[in-house]
UniProtKB/TrEMBL annotation:
Protein family membership: Belongs to the GTP-binding SRP family. FtsY subfamily.
Subunit structure and binding partners: Part of the signal recognition particle protein translocation system, which is composed of SRP and FtsY.
Top-rank lineage group of the source organism: Bacteria
Pfam families membership: SRP54, SRP54_N
Natural source organism: Paraliobacillus ryukyuensis
GO biological process, one term: SRP-dependent cotranslational protein targeting to membrane
Protein name: Signal recognition particle receptor FtsY
EC code: 3.6.5.4
Record has DNA repair as a keyword: no
Membrane topology listed for this record: Peripheral membrane protein
């Protein structure tokens, strides 16, 4: 069965899957608009798959921010696949490219879908880190909504005590999604409010505590010291925590996001990425670069500003979003070879 057909089947099977693919489809419309029209163009220009074809393909992938090393690996794999299947006709390659993109992301793992490290019978503590403006507070609000909808008791703690308005912004999210927010006044010690957050979460018997933090990168040393201190306080209170350190990155900042990830990884043990604003970029290939070049899983993606616009990262749904037009317009019979 062709890969397009496989994706088409999967994402039309249940209402839930359909909803997921619709979200990726609309969130990735900018990337798809540029990426899939370029691929279609490429295939129209080269009927035969040759060296020039691959050179142009490399260029398209690099422009989509896939990352040079990842592109090299991907193109090598594609060349092998072309040989193996004896593919001559370039139009057959769209399907193979989409399949390789999932493979390159997910590797040999069966898990193409990310999961949070939730503690089944205990408090889970997730720390959100990242520079100003990337979407930490917004993502916390969205995730709080999602977890509450799943029946979990969520508490938020306003650890960004530095920026004016940051505490209030989290408070507004808390009211909006109906969860409690633990806060101190502006300028107070972030580690102290996080400590209070843990005590409150415990006494309320909460399932999940989501910790916001400040992200001023102008003073890198201070920021990293502050994060270490916050982390120490969490570890002292709950030795197995934090159960996730989620680094929030803004997809529209492209390669800059990769360098932020390197800086934060040096200072703290990042367990996953929340990649926001994918809806705002035509270069959604950054997801693959992050996975391959940093070896940190993307756990969530932000696909818009609405409270429901945060999705668990799913490599197949991502690729569906990239190729949706081709997948949906492909007729089943010709694919069934
Ligand atoms: N379009 C879009 N905007 C987002 C997304 N996530 C966050 N934002 C916006 O990014 C801006 C900064 O977000 P904020 O949560 O305050 O960032 P923080 O400084 O890291 O806490 C806000 O205007 C958000 O609405 C997303 O996935 N898509
Ligand atoms: Mg914030």
């Amino acid at each position: 069965m062709s890969f397009f057909k496989k994706l088409k089947d999967k994402f039309s099977k249940t209402e839930e899957n359909q909803e997921v693919s619709d979200k990726y489809k609309s969130g990735l419309s900018k990337t798809r608009g540029s990426f899939s029209s370029k691929i279609n163009n490429l295939v129209a220009r080269y009927r035969q798959v040759d060296e020039d074809f691959f050179d142009d393909l490399e260029e398209i992938l690099i422009q989509a921010d896939v990352g040079v090393n990842t592109v090299m690996d991907l193109v090598d794999e594609l060349k092998m696949e072309v040989k193996r299947q004896n593919i001559k006709d370039s139009s057959m390659l769209k399907d193979v490219i989409s399949e390789k993109l999932v493979e390159i992301y997910a590797g040999d793992e069966e898990t193409v879908k990310a999961e949070l490290n939730l503690q089944p019978n205990d408090l889970s503590i997730f720390l959100f880190v990242g520079v100003n403006g990337v979407g930490k507070t917004t993502s916390i609000g969205k995730l709080a909504h999602q977890l509450s909808e799943q029946g979990k008791k969520v508490v938020l703690v306003a650890g960004d005590t530095f920026r004016a308005g940051a505490i209030e912004q989290l408070d507004v999210w808390g009211q909006r999604v109906g969860v409690e927010v633990i806060k101190h006044s502006e300028g107070s010690d972030p580690a102290a409010v996080i400590y209070d957050g843990i005590q409150a979460a415990r006494s309320r018997n909460a399932d999940v505590l989501l910790c916001d933090t400040a992200g001023r990168l102008q003073n890198k040393v201070n920021l990293m010291n502050e994060l270490s201190k916050v982390k120490r306080v969490i570890e002292r209170e709950v030795p197995s925590a934090p159960h996730e350190v989620l680094l929030v990155l803004d997809a529209t900042t492209g390669q800059n996001a990769l360098s932020q990830a390197k800086t934060f990884s040096e200072a703290t043990n990042v367990t996953g990425i929340v990649l926001t604003k994918l809806d705002g970029t035509a270069k959604g290939g950054i997801v693959l670069a992050i996975r391959k070049e940093l070896n940190i899983p993307v756990k969530y993606v932000g696909l818009g500003e609405k409270v429901t616009d945060l999705e668990v990262f799913d490599a197949q749904a991502f690729v569906y979003g990239l190729f949706a037009d081709m997948i949906e317009s492909s007729d089943d019979e010709s694919l069934d070879s």
